[in-house]
C-alpha cells in the first residue's frame, strides 16, 4: 500500500510516493524513517550524525500525519531539546517512522543547517 509524503522547503515542495515494503531507501536513518525515505528519493535533509539520533540537524516539523508515526523515544526527545524552533510537531527525521496509513506533509526548516559542514 503506497502513501504520499510532501516534503516542503523554502524553495518549494517535493511529493514522494512511498511503498514501505521497499524500505530501506538509503543508508541513513532508521529504515522507513522520514530521513531514509527523503534521501532515497533525492530530497536532501541535513544529518550530521549519519542518522543515528546523535544530533538534531535532521529536525523536521510534521504538518500532517504525525498521528501515523511512531512515538518519539527518550533519546530522540533529548536531541530535540537541542534543536532550534522546536514545535509540538517537531521530530527527528532519522527516527520518525510513518506507518503508511495516511499521506503526510513534512516541513524541512530553512534554518536547519548542518553545523558540522559550516565550521570551516
Could you characterize the architecture of this molecule?
The chain has a single domain, classed as Ubiquitin-like (UB roll) (Roll). 15% of the residues lie in helices and 24% in strands. It contains three helices and five strands; from the N terminus they run E-E-H-E-H-E-E-H. The longest helix is centred in the N-terminal third of the chain and has 7 residues. The C terminus is likely disordered.
CATH architecture: Roll
- How many domains make up the coordinates? 1
The CATH class = Alpha Beta
- Going across the major beta sheet, what is the strand order? 2-1-5-3-4
Quaternary structure classification: single chain
Proportion in helices: 10-25%
SS field, number of helical segments: 3
Which structural class best describes the helix and strand composition? alpha+beta
Q: Any idea what the radius of gyration is?
A: 13 Å
- N-to-C SSE string, H for helix and E for strand: EEHEHEEH
Shape: globular
Amino acid at each position: 500500500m503506497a502513501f504520499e509524503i510532501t516534503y516542503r522547503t523554502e524553495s518549494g515542495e517535493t511529493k514522494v510516493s512511498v511503498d514501505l515494503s521497499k524500505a530501506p531507501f538509503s543508508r541513513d536513518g532508521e529504515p522507513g524513517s522520514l530521513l531514509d525515505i527523503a534521501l532515497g528519493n533525492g530530497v536532501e535533509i541535513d544529518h550530521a550524525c549519519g542518522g543515528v539520533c546523535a544530533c538534531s540537524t535532521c529536525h523536521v516539523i510534521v504538518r500532517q500525519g504525525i498521528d501515523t508515526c511512531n512515538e518519539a523515544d527518550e533519546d530522540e526527545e533529548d536531541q530535540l531539546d537541542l534543536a532550534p524552533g522546536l514545535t509540538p510537531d517537531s521530530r527527528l527525521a532519522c527516527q520518525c517512522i510513518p506507518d503508511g496509513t495516511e499521506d503526510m506533509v513534512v516541513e524541512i526548516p530553512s534554518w536547519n543547517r548542518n553545523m558540522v559542514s559550516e565550521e570551516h
